Each structure stands twice: as structure tokens, then as C-alpha cells.
Amino acid sequence: MENQVKAIRIEENGGPEVLKLVSVQVPPPEKNEVTIRQKAVGLNFIDIYYRSGLYKHPLPHGLGFEASGVVEAVGAGVRHLKVGDRVAYGQSPLGAYAEARNVPADRVVKIPGGVDFDQAAALMLKGLTVQYLFRQTYRLQGGETILFHAAAGGVGLIACQWAKALGVKLIGTASTAEKAALAKAHGAWEVIDYSREDVVERVKELTNGKKVPVVYDGVGKDTWLASLDCLEPRGLMVSFGNASGPVEGVNLGILAAKGSLFVTRPTLGTHVPTLEKMQAASDELFGLVAKKKIGITIGQRFALEDAGAAQEALQSRKTTGATILTLD
């Protein structure tokens, strides 16, 4: 039996005005799929990249990669989920901005007790991003001092808490004194207000001239060179996002000049390609949530039809913590 539901679609790339609320049919789930009646949808910068056309995808298409909800139907071959399960996902095909949808079952995990739908939707993509950054890309052991840009954003506030839980000194950057205070309150060791302070000089001061072994940079173009200058010799630059635009025209010689540096441009998808890896990463994330080591700050909630306004708020850097669409 098919469901008629509301969903956001775009027919062309552009600004928030290209988001259209339409009725779509949700067919029965195919093999290895589940149908999820969604409760909350997480917003991320990657949604804006797909809307604008920075990241290409055949049009028309939906938007969004993470949500939470209840399993409504289960396709053939699905063993780990059943109808009625409370679930979440953070790495689906495009199209999370919808009341209900079909999702590959190997992207979907159960939400443990004590985590609500809003938290799960806000946590999955951002929390799994921090998991792969801190536990896979550069495996933090505890005791390191690291630099993390945009420490008061949705990913950043989770990173501040996770670093503290690991015994890692996280130096964050933020654009205002208020955001710096928020990051500090979430466990950052120190926060640099880059509107008033020189990031490289402060990092040198805070590390007694040693600098850091790893920089996590989701900002992109605007912070690229400063990030390299914060790294100790043979340090790793982890460029995992482009909130300010993509890093382009990189001269590899600069890595030699600045100390035999390493650079990587990782994505979540390659770190959780199977159900087993997705489950393991989610278990580690939800384990920290259950122990109250990580809490999720939802700064903004919008209705599905206001997805354009939600994206505008995110893009203008007016938001703190996570932004979600609620569907109840």
C-alpha cells in the first residue's frame, strides 16, 4: 500500500527559494529497505551544498541525510529491524526532508532508550562525523592538544564534549565571544575568538610554540592556510567540510614548506560503509550519550515547510548547536 506524504524537493539549484513542498508517493519497501515514518530531520551544511549545486546530483531531487522515526514497514531480507522500532540514520540517500520515506536498512540503527527522536535526528550525522574524525581518521588516544574550527556549531559542540571525554585538550575557534563561551561550556579546553584574535599566534601560545598534531577543519577555504600554520611538523590537516567554500588550487609544495605535513579530505560514507561499521560507530556515540558524556544542544527547530528559512539560518552562521525540522 502506498503512502501519500509531504516532502521537500528541488527542481533547480539556487537559494532557499528553490525548496518546494510537494506530495510524493512512498511505495512499499523493496528488499533490504525499511519505510520510516519520520519524527525529526537533522539539518547540515551538506544539504546547502546540494541545494546550491556545489555538490552535483541529478535534478529533481530531495535533500537531507539524517532523521529519526518509527519503522512502518520492513522489506525482505531485513533482520535487525522490525515494525514499531524507534530508529535513526545519518547517512542515507538524499531525501530526508520528508514525512516518511524508504531507506536502505543497512544505514538504519535502533535508538536506545533515553535518547529521544529530536536528539537522535540531531546526533546521527554530526555525532558519527565526530566518531570517524576522532576515532578513525586520526585516532585520538587522550592527552593530545588539537585544533577544531567552528567549535560552537552542531558538529563542534559534540566534538568539544567527546574530546573532554577522551582526555583531549580541544582548542576551538568561534566567531563571537558568546559562541566561544558556549564551546567552553561544552568542554573545550580553550577557545579562540577569531574576530578578535590571531588563530595561529594563539595556538602557538597555548602549546608553548609546539603547535598541534592534528587540525579538524570543516570551514574550508577561509581557514586553510591558518590551519596548516597551526600544525607541528608531520602533522595531519583533516579538511572535512567547506562551510566557507571549497579549498581549491592547492600547491602540494606548501605541505613540504610547512613541515612535511599530511592532508586528508575524508567523508563519513567511506568510514561507515557496512551495517557492522555503522552499528559500531553508532554504539560508541550512543554509549557516550547514555553515560551523559555527550548531550545534544538543539538551538533551532523549524517545521518541514520552513526548511528554506532553516537553511538560511544555518548558512548565515546565526545558529548555535544543531538545527532540526520537526514533523509531529
Percentage of residues in DSSP E strands: 25-35%
User: Can you tell me the CATH superfamily of the largest domain?
Assistant: Medium-chain alcohol dehydrogenases, catalytic domain
What overall form do the CA principal axes indicate?
A: globular
Order of helices and strands: EEEHEEEEHEHEHEHEHEHEHEHE
| Alpha-beta classification | alpha/beta
Q: Count every beta strand, where a strand is a DSSP E run of 2 or more residues.
A: 15
Can you give the helix content as a percent range?
25-40%
- How many angstroms does the end-to-end distance come to? 22 Å
CA gyration radius, whole angstroms: 20 Å
CATH class of the largest domain: Alpha Beta
- How many DSSP H or I helices? 9
Question: How many domains is the backbone divided into?
Answer: 2
If classified by CATH, what would the architecture of the largest domain be?
Answer: Alpha-Beta Complex
Query: Runs with pLDDT <50, length 5+?
Result: none
Keywords: NADP, Oxidoreductase
Protein name: NADPH2:quinone reductase
GO molecular function: mRNA 3'-UTR AU-rich region binding; NADPH binding; quinone reductase (NADPH) activity; zinc ion binding
Pfam families: ADH_N, ADH_zinc_N
